[in-house]
Predict the structure.
Amino acid sequence: MKDISEKILSEIKELRELIDKYNYFYYAKDESIISDYEYDMLTKKLEKYEKEYPELINEFSPTQLVGKLDKNSKFKKVEHKVPMLSLANTYGINDIKNFNDRVLKIIERDNIEYVLELKLDGLSISLNYENGKLKRGVTRGDGKIGEDVTENILQINSIPKYLKENINIEVRGEVILPLDKFKKINKERIEKGQEVFANPRNAAAGTLRQLDSKIVKERELDCYVYYLVNSENYNLEKHSQSLEYMKKLGFKVNDNYKIVNNIFEITDFIKEWEEKRKELNYETDGLVIKVNEYMFYEELGYTTKSPRWAIAYKFPTTQVTTKLISITYQIGRTGVITPVANLEPVRISGSMVRRATLHNFEEIARKDIRIGDIVFVEKAAEIIPQVVKPVIELRTGEEKEVEMPTICPSCREKLYKDENEVALKCVNNSCPEKLKRKIEYFVSRDAMNIEGLGPKLIERFINEGYIKNICDIYKLEDKFNEISEMENFGIKSIENLLESINKSKTREYNKVLYSLGIPYVGKFLADTLSNYSKNIVFLMQMSKEELLEIDGVGEKVASSVIKFFQDENNREIIEKLKQIGLNFEFLEKDNQDEDLKKLIGKTFLVTGTLKNYKRSELKDIIEKNGGKNVSSVSKKLNYLIVGENPGSKFKKAEVLGIPIINEDEFFKMI
């Protein structure tokens, strides 16, 4: 027996207590107070210790248990005839290779069939039928004993009450809450002042354990089955045959599965679904890899809690926990103050995150987020880090409530909040930070496209007093001598910048309109408004009712346009830009050019890496030729333009029969 230090014993004890605590909240309270990835890493660390010191393993260790049963639950406890095991999790391709090597070594074969299935993020359920009639629905519980939730199971439409064959059978599946239903429920809960569900899994689990079955029916849960217990009783030799048989009986089976023969096909399937899963109406956090032929199951065997003939691959984590250290305030071009969380650095989806948006102060109050909290952080749409919620159960009492600021952190002027709006704003037009954001927007590629005038240089020009409003950009030529004396700024750089500024005077009316930064008026609406109004004078004189008649303009946009043009400062800026020579009229001759009519009425989507252009450049060419850019593949799409590595959009377009063209073929069209 190895000598075990007090430090290791203490760490093992702490790991078990932590995992037990997280299990209790996850399985008994339907709450996640740690991310799946962090939980799995703690479990793997404990497993490593127990492998090194096997004499410390006992039946109560969380490594030996599948889940946690809520002993205080009012639901009847039922023992599973066949234990409901969980799957071993992995986050790396190498682990899958090791799994494959181990399987092939045990069964002494060069290759084997696997079935790859999506791993749905919901609540596991066992469904028992007698003579073809649903008899009982039981949760996983601790794997040996679950909770009888039959009354609630009966409220789920996708679970058949009667099968198409008069047989005795047990199947296992996953109860989920579709994303559209999840969003609807959370919206209703916000309107009622109730706490929102953190994610669809918690919502599904919490719903299935409701004592009032009417609530279950209202929330429209769904269920996919994935496993047939004692399949040999039905003369089935493969798992893939079981899936088809369960479908034939009337069960809902996820059709996104595939039979493969080697590790390369597994890797390709993983890469495909890492992107493709975002198009689904339910959450999937990975893939399940199962040996297809049942004849090998006993030979491969089981651990205490997992089969050795299957493994779950988890997609890179998008939600983790970390500490919120402090809050700073970001000022937008319209003066909106956005609170930003400064975090203890944490890795999310492959990048280190130190800051995350808190959206607004009402959101902070609603979620009760405090400085010093352990918080869940995720990347919204895989791009923008945001704080999801605090882990209230981990509070120490030293956390501080967030106070809404009253003074702008940039200009020190008093902040303003409209009773009808969520946003807190700085209304000072001379606010340096607000001006900086306005200028950045004005010179951006989709607006006036002034190259060389980046954020750092804009800040320097504002600090030096050369830029006090947008119009001052066009007066920089008069400051040539002063600018040439600035540190790290050569004559050639100045000349290039001034050339780009002068070139921007030729930008079309729709680009100029977009560059003004009217709230809620993006590229598409700027095009729409410029086409309709023909010139800025007419647009400024339009009533709200007239604006609402324009296709694509709603109440919020119309009100924003009216409010923008009523502002005396904005009207003054527009007048000065006119005098400078910017184009505030729609050029009819461009619209009448026969070449530009070739793409009118056609929609395009660009995907993949192009040979000669950036995607944004090709989108501009499409718009200049009368076409319209869209963001997703649907039956309304006319053409998909593809480059290298086009991803899931290519396959979806193929399925829908949408014409797929390359860069060269597109240019032949115009």
